[in-house]
Amino acid sequence: MNTPATTPAKAGAPFDYLLPSLGADMDVGKIIEWRVDLGDTVHRGDVVAVVETEKSDIDIEIWHDAVVDEFLVPIGEEIEVDTPIARMRHLDGDTAPEPTIPEPTITEPTTPSAPAPVGQRSSRPETPPTLPAVRREGVRVSASPLARRLAAERGLDLADVRGSGPAGAIVEADILSIGASPGNLAPTTERRRGLGTMRSLIADRMARSNREIPHYHLARDVDLAALDSWLTTRNADRPIAKRILPAALYIRAVALAAARHPELNGYWVDGDFEPGTAVNVAMAISLRKGGLVTPHVSAADERSVDDIMSTLTELVAGARSGALRSSWMTGATITITNLGDTGADLVHGVISPPQVALVGFGRVSQRPWVVDGVLEVRPILTTTLAADHRATDGTVGSRFLTTLATLLENPETL
Amino acid sequence: MSAAGEGDIRSMTYREAMHEALHEALANDDRVFIMGEDVADYGGTYAVTKGLYEEFGRDRVRNTPLSESGFVGAGIGAALGGLRPIVEIMTVNFSLLALDQLVNTAATFLHMSGGQFNVPLVVRMTTGAGRQLAAQHSHSLEGWFAHVPGLKVIAPATAEDARWMLPTALADPNPVIIFEHSGLYNDRGPVDPDTGPVDLDHAAVRRSGSDLTIVASAGMVPKALAAAEQLDKSAISAEVVDLRSLRPLDIPTLAASLERTNRALVLDEGWRTGGLNAEIAATLTDVCFWSLDAPIARLAGAEVPIPYAKHLEIAAIPQVDDIIAAAANLVRPIG
Question: Exactly one of B19, B137, B139, B181 is catalytic; which is it?
Answer without folding.
Answer: B137
